[in-house]
Amino acid sequence: MTDDFYCDEVLSGRTPVRVVHETANTLAYHHTRPHWPVHIVVIPKEHVPSLTNLGERGEALLPELIEAVRHVAALVEEEHGAARVLTNLGAYQDSKHLHFHVNSGAEGAS
User: What is the total count of domains within the chain?
Assistant: First the structure.
């Protein structure tokens, strides 16, 4: 097991997820352990280490990933009246695979 939950668990199919939006290169799904009442994770389907370390193909995948984040954020904003978009870096990034959290509501109120 590596420190990449998304490759090891989600993209491998070991951890089932409820898909919100999917493209050829991105996946958005309801967080498996949400911190907010609405908590969706958007990831590239290929391993990309982080926003500051895009690895080999991250730069090419970034436009499609950002478009997926925009799409999901618009859905959340439309349905709930507000949305946040968050990504973590360095020690804050538990899984070393670029991912964005799209959320709404008070933290810990899930």
Answer: 1
CA distance 100 to 52: 13
**Beta-bridge mates of residue 30:** 40
Residue 109 lies in a domain: no
Quick check: 21 and 67 in contact, CB under 8 A? no
Structural domain range at position 66: 5-104
Tens-digit pLDDT profile for residues 38-80:
999 999 999 999 999 999 999 999 999 999 999 999 999 999 9
Contact 108, 35 (CB under 8 A): yes
The enclosing domain of 22 has a CATH number of 3.30.428.10
CA atoms within 13 A on the CB side of 57: 10
Are 77 and 107 a contacting pair, CB within 8 Å? Answer: no
C-alpha angle 43-44-50 in degrees, rounded to nearest 5: 80
Asked, for residue 60, whether it belongs to a domain, the answer is: yes
Q: Does this model's pTM top 0.85?
A: yes
| Residue given tokens 């730069």 in the structure block | 59
